[in-house]
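Re: beginner question about structure tokens

> Can someone show what the tokenized structure looks like for a real chain? I only ever see the sequence side.

Sure, here's an example I had lying around. Input first:
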Amino acid sequence: MNRIIINGANGYVASHFAAELIKNKNQVFALVRSNREFSPTMRMKKILDDINENREDDYKNLKVYNYSLLDKDFSLSEDELKEIFCEKSDFFHFAASLKFAEKDKKEIFETNVEGLENAIWLFLKYSKPGSRFFYISTAYSCGNNGHPFLEKFYTNEDISAFRNYYEQSKRFGENVLKKYIEDKRLNGYVLRLSQVAGNNITGITTTDYGIFDFVKRLHSFSRRHPGETVRISVTPESTQNIIAIDKIVNYLLTLVTIDKLPTIINLVARNYIKNDDIIKCICRLLPINILQVRELNPDSMNILERIIAAGMSFTGKYSNTDLKFDTTNIDLLNFPRDNEITPDSLCRMIEYVIKH
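And the corresponding structure tokens:
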């Protein structure tokens, strides 16, 4: 039985990871913030019920704690800290702000950089020898790098080197971890996740991030303006790196069983999906005709095209990219090549999002 500590445990990837850990009889310590409606335990169990339809007796290996990412010792009591860190454990730092705009820069960096450093301090202070710290970063910390994104540390750069402040904050976070590895001998690792989609087998998709946010916006638009033909700024041949939630969870489950790991691992898809395949799927499923234009002059847009463009403030930054990610380390670890997302399986996920 492995002991796994997860902060931000109620997030999309973290909760699916926790569900599989519990199913496989691992001991999970979930750090979750309370809200006005539900306690941390209620929030966590509700999410797990939605994922796996767990029975109450499945929760005997789950302990949930109310925590505050930016507070000293996460605002956990001495007894709680002793219970969480009483044995060698793997600590997964999922907590993050997914905001990206300049107006949210302060919150983004407080959460994604200062929050990470606070978590590292907590880990160094209380963890037992042999424990490991896994920082969940993003493959898009590559920024505007035009070359294959290698599994190494890159220097911090100005915002002009990135598409948004989320990407920049995750790069800064990686270098915070690097500093503690070098200066404090932190047993730390960077896991760079690609865009995580739904379940590749069932098609069930409960995330509204990235392309699925785009799909929801187009669904709403097409209900108000059925049958319209609109242009959007997209390069049809450009690609997206999208990995299924069940595949990423299997990667994470495998990592906790391996003693010696590379410091940085790009947990990305080996296959890429063309924008053209995504747009064609959306046009089949919605009463809308989308024309893909490589360079669409904003001055030439009609009012409906401007509405769509306004909703693409995040996803639009990735519609003309063709990023490539190094997969040397997942190859060295012999991670399986099956269960890759295809245009057909992604279309099933898009259909699920539209219907739900």
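Each token stands for a local structural state, so reading them left to right follows the chain. The first helix runs from residue 12 to 23.
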